[in-house]
Amino acid sequence: MSLIYVSKLSKRYGNELILKDVNFKADEGEIIGLLGPNGAGKTTFIRLLNGVIHSDSGTITVSGFNPAAQGDEVRKISGIVTESAGLYHQMSGKENLEFFAGIYKVGAAKDQISRLLRLFDLEEHQAKLVGAYSTGMKKRLGLAKALLHNPKILFLDEPTNGLDPEGIRIVLSYLKKYNKETGTTILICSHVLHQLETVCTSFAFMDRGTIVEQGRLKELEEKYIKELEITLET
Ligand code: ATP
């Protein structure tokens, strides 16, 4: 049984069909790149997987739970990083983690916060206000925040936006390291294929509200990659 299983998923906003007949699956320990141009429906898909919004039809199972009916259960085992990351700029990095650890009721929070600050190379910046952090440091703190409760699955929406090439390389290498150490399944939404080539174990290509292909990069038919490269930044 897949950790994430989606079948014939559809979602409308008003009269507009945003997602149609989406099929998708993810196994434990995978790093999956969900690729597609702006407006393809990637963010909507992640919100459905987390039970933030509900589908009109189709099936979603996340670690055995139905997000629409068991959203709280899904959020207990998943972490999500959106573009803003929801950090408080007037608090230090460490204070942010302490604050969210309290909200998430993280056990042994002190040790967990120290571990994550170390893992994401933020130890020496922990007392600094987040407002004074670089974009890369904010991204790393956003990751630490999402990982406070040791989720089984991590959802990332465009985690490299706003970073320079070196910042992108650093953030992706942290993700790879974290996946290797913990086996956490990671789903990364992006519109930039080449950044993810060396990080992801498999890919799903989303275009105009549907997943047109999913599999390992090598196995994917050339035609889909070629078709989508027209709109994907390379
Ligand atoms: P991007 O990378 O630009 O965020 P995306 O692939 O994540 O793109 P979505 O944000 O899921 O795409 O948007 C898919 C479509 O759904 C877009 O046409 C968008 O305008 C529409 N949409 C998203 N959220 C809503 C909403 N709350 N109400 C109405 N339409 C919406």
What does this structure look like?
The chain is about 35% helix and about 25% strand. With about 230 residues, the protein is α/β, with parallel strands linked by helices. The strands form two sheets. A six-stranded mixed sheet has the order 5-6-7-3-8-9, sandwiched between helices. Strand 8 (about 200-205) and strand 9 (about 210-215) form a beta hairpin. Helix 3 (about 95-105) packs across helix 4 (about 110-120) and helix 5 (about 135-145) runs parallel beside helix 6 (about 165-180). The two termini are about 35 Å apart. The mean pLDDT is about 90. Adenosine-5'-triphosphate (ATP) binds near residues 13, 38 and 44.
Annotation keywords:
234 residues, alpha/beta, six-stranded mixed β-sheet, three-stranded antiparallel β-sheet, 33% helix, binds adenosine-5'-triphosphate, ATP-binding, ATP binding
Brief summary:
With 234 residues, this protein is an alpha/beta fold. 33% of the residues lie in helices and 25% in strands. α3 (93-103) packs across α4 and α5 runs parallel beside α6 (165-182).
Element string (H = helix, E = strand)? EEEHEHEHHHEHEHEEH
Number of helical elements = 8
Oligomer: single chain
Let me know the number of strands. 9
Structural class: alpha/beta
- Give the C-alpha Rg: 18 Å
Described by the principal axes of the CA atoms, the overall outline is: globular
Strands in their spatial order, largest beta sheet? 5-6-7-3-8-9
